[in-house]
Every structure is written in C-alpha cells, then in structure tokens.
Write a structure and sequence with these properties.
This protein is α+β, with helices and mostly antiparallel strands. It is about 30% helix and about 35% strand. α1 packs across α2. The longest helix is centred in the middle third of the chain and has 15 residues.
C-alpha cells in the first residue's frame, strides 16, 4: 500500500530498497553530528536492523517519482529499554539533493502504522547537537520527557540525548 503527496510516494520498504537506503544512512553517518549510529552499516546489517530483524515493526520509504529512487526512510522498532507498547523511531533523509517534506510525509504513514499496531507511544532519541532532528520531531508533535546526560560517542566526546515522546492514541 503506497500513499502519495504532492511530490513523493510513500510505501513500505522492501528488501530491494536495502542498497539505496543503506547508502542514504551511511552518508549521514559519515557526515556525523546527526545520528547516534557512528559506523557505517553493511547491507545485511541494515536489513537485519531496519527491514526484518527481531525488533522490526515497520519501515517506510519515500520515493521521488521523477527519479524513481528513495529519498529517505523511517523505521519503527521495539527497544529493550522502552515499555512493551512503545516503539523507537529513526528518520533518515538523503542529504543531496535535499527534498523538502520527506520526514513529514513519512511520519504520516508511520503514525498510521503505529495506531494499527496498537502502540501507546513512539520514542525518539535525538543527539542534543542535532538541532534539525530536534526541530523535526517537535514539528511532528513529539514532546521532551527525559534527557540522558553526557552519553559518550565512540571517541569519548560526551553528548546529551534528548528523549521525545509522541502519544499515538
């Protein structure tokens, strides 16, 4: 099932999308500063995490019809530190060329799926230095409920993590 807005098709991600989606994610990881993931993923690691792993709940991809290639994706997964009826969310959009509205279009479908799954809330854990991510989740209706202080990156740099919650019901 796919939905369309003015300039994007939003549909469930498929295994055939893995190469393009891991490329988007690895570019973001390499740029640094906006994701807690610090090392690039292989295609199989990506698939096991975002497309079919034990914690997988849903993953949607945004496709620009004129180019017929993914411009971003958003995933819901279970997380052992969250209540059973919560999911963790991750949102990733291509850096170049940047396409306006990818995150908003993706969240529309992700929110519907969260309701179908009977989730009570969606958690977003955002690095405090990721101002774009913080603004995006606030725009989507997430509210801050906790701050994890000085979580070290692989190089030891302490970065706070802001936990935001979206109430599904």
């Amino acid at each position: 099932m796919a939905s369309e807005n003015d300039h994007l098709i939003i549909r469930p991600a498929a295994s055939e999308d893995a190469a393009a989606l891991v490329e988007i994610l690895n570019e973001i990881i390499s740029a640094g500063g906006t994701t807690a993931i610090e090392r690039p993923l292989s295609r199989s690691e990506f698939g096991a995490h975002y497309l079919h792993g034990d914690r997988f709940l849903a993953c949607y991809v945004a496709v620009e019809p004129s180019r017929r290639e993914p411009t971003g994706f958003q995933a819901l997964e279970r997380h052992p530190d969250l209540p059973e009826n919560w999911a963790d969310i991750g949102t990733f959009a291509r850096m170049r060329p940047k396409i306006k509205g990818v995150g908003t279009a993706l969240f529309s479908e992700t929110r519907k799926r969260a309701r179908e799954l009977g989730l009570a809330a969606i958690n977003a854990a955002i690095r405090a230095d990721n101002t774009g991510g913080l603004a995006y989740y606030e725009k989507m209706g997430f509210t801050t409920y906790k701050t994890l202080r000085a979580i070290p990156l692989n190089d030891g740099t302490p970065i706070d993590r802001i936990l935001k919650r979206y109430d599904v019901a």
